[in-house]
Every structure is written in C-alpha cells, then in structure tokens.
Amino acid sequence: MTPSKTYLTVAFAQKDAAKALGAKWDATLKKWYVPADKDIALFAQWHIPSETIDTATPRTNKPKASTIATKTSVSTDATGVITYAADKNFIAYKGAAPPWD
C-alpha cells in the first residue's frame, strides 16, 4: 500500500514556512502535501479537511468558458493555428495578400 498524502492549501507567500515544516510539493497537481510520516497537526493552518483532490487528473490551465463564448469568428491558417476574433468584422490574415489592400 502506498503512503497517503494530505494536501494543503498554502499561499505562495507561506510556501517556505510549509516547506520548513516538512511539506512537499506535488508538481503534477501543483499542491503542497504532508507526507505520511509527518504530523498533520503541524500543518493545521493550511489543512482543509473537506477538500478532496482528484489525483488521477492533473490540473491544467484551460480558458474559461466565458472567454470562449465571447469569440465570434474562428479561422485556421495553413499551419493549423486557430485564430479567434472578438470583432464580427475581423478578417484573418492567411499569409497571402494582406486583406487591407
């Protein structure tokens, strides 16, 4: 059985204090945790018991749905780069003659 990790909510300004007490950084989940061999009482200020972490799915930086919803025009160039335009009059430049000539 693998040792369990208790995840913490540590502000960036307090990361050094948590690390000094023995907290470890989980780079996949981008969260600090208490190893199984440490006393959780030392980390009470950062421990939120009701917080659950899905360890099977790492966090990613995805755009917010509201940001995507405001886009009105979509264009793809020859290299496959997708261009989103917020202006309904936007014309994507595809590398040939500029659209303003």
In short:
The protein has helices spanning 15-21, 65-69, and strands spanning 6-8, 24-26, 31-34, 73-76, 82-85. It is of the alpha+beta class. Residues 5-46 form the DUF5710 domain.
Structure, described:
The protein has 101 residues and is α+β, with helices and mostly antiparallel strands. It has two domains: 56 residues, no CATH class; 31 residues, no CATH class. The protein contains two helices and five strands; from the N terminus they run βαββαββ. The strands form two sheets. It has a three-stranded antiparallel sheet, with helices on one face. It has a two-stranded antiparallel sheet with strand order 4-5. Strand 4 and strand 5 form a beta hairpin. The radius of gyration is 23 Å and the shape is rod-shaped. About 5% of the residues have low confidence.
List the helices and strands and how they pair.
Blueprint lengths: L5 E3 L6 H7 L2 E3 L4 E4 L30 H5 L3 E4 L5 E4 L16
Antiparallel strand pairs: 1-3, 2-3, 4-5
Pfam families: DUF5710 (PF18974)
InterPro entries: DUF5710
Protein name: DUF5710 domain-containing protein
Features:
5 strands, 12% helix, alpha+beta, rod-shaped, 101 residues, 2 helices
Cα Rg: 23 Å
Mean pLDDT: 73
Helix percent band: 10-25%
Category from helices, strands and their pairing: alpha+beta
CA(first)-CA(last) distance: 68 Å
Quaternary: single chain
Tell me the strand order in the biggest sheet: 1-3-2
